[in-house]
Design goal:
The chain is mainly alpha-helical. The chain has helices spanning about 1-10, 15-25, 30-60, 65-85, 95-100, 115-124. Helices cover about 70% and strands about 0% of the residues. This is Glycerol-3-phosphate transporter.
Length: about 120
């Protein structure tokens, strides 16, 4: 139970930084396509684990490799991502994405009639 809780806790920490990166690096018109690729990547990752585990058994000759071979690949990819991923386009000397794509930033429209949480929860 504790391991499942920790697993969910740490996996849940992946979404907020990714969402920030998506908003920073892609314009509004591009985000839908890139979000869909990101969602597909979860399914691809789940589908590729069995062939990777099988390859690990083939390469190392032990069933223990089904645990360490995919983990090793994940660690290598994490290190590569750590060094290649940049925070913002500006940190690379590029203009902000809105300026580059010539898109205007939508301004917030404040609603005079704010709906309360209780109304949303019980009415809708």
């Amino acid at each position: 139970c504790i391991l499942a809780l920790l697993n969910g806790w740490f996996q849940g920490m992946g979404y907020p930084p990714y969402a920030k990166n998506m908003v920073t690096w892609f314009s509004r018109s591009e985000r839908g396509a890139w979000w869909s690729w990101w969602n597909v990547s979860h399914n691809l990752g789940g589908g590729i684990i069995a062939p990777l585990a099988t390859l690990g058994i083939y390469l190392f000759g032990t069933w223990h490799s089904i645990f360490f071979f995919p983990a090793l690949i994940s660690i290598v990819l994490a290190v590569v991502t750590f060094f290649l991923l940049k925070d913002t386009p500006q940190s690379c000397g590029l203009p902000p994405i809105e300026e580059y794509k010539h898109e205007t930033v939508a301004t917030e429209v404040k609603d005079e009639n704010k709906t309360t949480f209780k109304e949303i929860f019980y009415k809708y």
